[in-house]
């Protein structure tokens, strides 16, 4: 068990973040409803970047969570790395071991499109590794939490349920969950070659990882193209924390753990998440062989 910064009790911290998260859910659901009106949509969108849109919901949740943490936990030796703050000031530097890694709205495109597959990610990293984590999925009334040792899901009324990870050992028997808005031709070829039992299309990495933890899918593969945009620390930190504490694994294709705090916070290459840490390495090796044998991606 890692000791939290002086003056922070883990149970009180989780209680507070639970409250903050449901406050964030109210904001996200409010703007999600407004987006159903085309006139309101123009007012909610804060930029014209189709590849990386920002909405008022992103900004309001960003402001809320940072304000709540800073108000409740004054003078604590940690920093907050937020996607929205990096967009406006790309000079985040810290020497602290403890860093909040925060994405107020993962899956903004899905949020705008009204699919419901969007999430808030909040992780507390210790020495560049996710420790505590929260993945909030408002449209499903789900708040996934890990205290660093176990993972559970809560509804707004406080009811809880445990993870329900699947145990499919063979790659072709697995259900893959993959991106709706970030698919690419190389990943399509890989999926075709593996010939998964089933492929589910879903936005938000948080929603995809939650589907693995909840037993709705087995595996997620992220493949970033060279020279193209790639996911960032805030896309993976909170989802990784809930998956690993539940018994799953997330690594690069060489079965190496993700490293946080790199240049520009990039998480590039091929990343694989599965619901079974015991078979994860063999699954990675199998995928690597398929990629190599078919010349799908430069490894």
Automatic annotation (TrEMBL):
Q: What is the lineage of its organism?
A: Bacteria, Bacillati, Cyanobacteriota, Cyanophyceae, Synechococcales
Per the record, a Pfam family? Inositol_P
Q: What is its EC number?
A: 3.1.3.7
Q: From what superkingdom does this record's organism come?
A: Bacteria
Check the record and name the PANTHER family matching this protein: 3'(2'),5'-BISPHOSPHATE NUCLEOTIDASE 1 (PTHR43028), AMMONIUM TRANSPORT PROTEIN (PTHR43028:SF1)
Cofactor(s), by name: Mg(2+)
Q: Name one GO molecular function term.
A: 3'(2'),5'-bisphosphate nucleotidase activity
Q: Which Gene3D superfamilies match?
A: 3.40.190.80, Fructose-1,6-Bisphosphatase, subunit A, domain 1 (3.30.540.10)
What biological-process terms (Gene Ontology) are attached? 3'-phosphoadenosine 5'-phosphosulfate metabolic process; sulfate assimilation
Write down the top EC class of this protein.
hydrolase
Can you name this protein?
Answer: 3'(2'),5'-bisphosphate nucleotidase
């Amino acid at each position: 068990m890692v000791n939290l910064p002086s003056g922070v009790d883990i149970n009180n911290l989780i209680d507070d973040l639970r409250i903050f998260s449901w406050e964030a859910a109210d904001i996200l659901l409010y703007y999600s409803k407004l987006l159903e009106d085309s006139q309101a949509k123009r007012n909610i969108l804060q930029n014209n970047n189709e590849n990386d849109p920002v909405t008022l919901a992103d900004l309001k949740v960003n402001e809320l969570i940072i304000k709540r943490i800073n108000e409740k936990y004054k003078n604590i030796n940690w920093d907050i790395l937020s996607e929205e703050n990096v967009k406006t000031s790309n000079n985040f530097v810290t020497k602290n071991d403890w860093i909040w890694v925060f994405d107020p709205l993962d899956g903004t495109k899905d949020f705008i499109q009204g699919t419901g597959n969007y999430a808030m990610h909040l992780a507390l990293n210790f020495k560049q590794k996710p420790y505590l984590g929260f993945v909030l999925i408002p449209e499903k009334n789900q708040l996934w939490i890990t205290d660093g040792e176990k993972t559970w899901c809560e509804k707004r009324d406080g009811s809880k349920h445990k993870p329900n990870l699947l145990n499919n050992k063979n790659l072709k028997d697995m259900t893959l969950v993959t991106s709706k808005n970030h698919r690419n031709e190389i990943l399509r070829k890989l999926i075709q070659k593996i010939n998964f039992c089933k492929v589910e299309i879903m936005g938000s990495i948080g929603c995809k990882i939650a589907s693995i933890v909840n037993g709705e899918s087995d595996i997620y593969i992220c493949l970033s193209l060279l020279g193209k945009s790639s996911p960032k620390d805030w896309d993976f930190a909170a989802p990784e924390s809930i998956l690993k504490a539940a018994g799953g694994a997330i690594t690069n294709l060489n079965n190496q753990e993700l490293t946080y705090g790199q240049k520009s916070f990039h998480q590039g290459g091929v990343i694989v998440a599965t619901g079974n840490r015991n078979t994860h390495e063999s699954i990675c090796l199998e995928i690597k062989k398929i990629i190599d044998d078919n010349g799908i991606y430069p490894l």
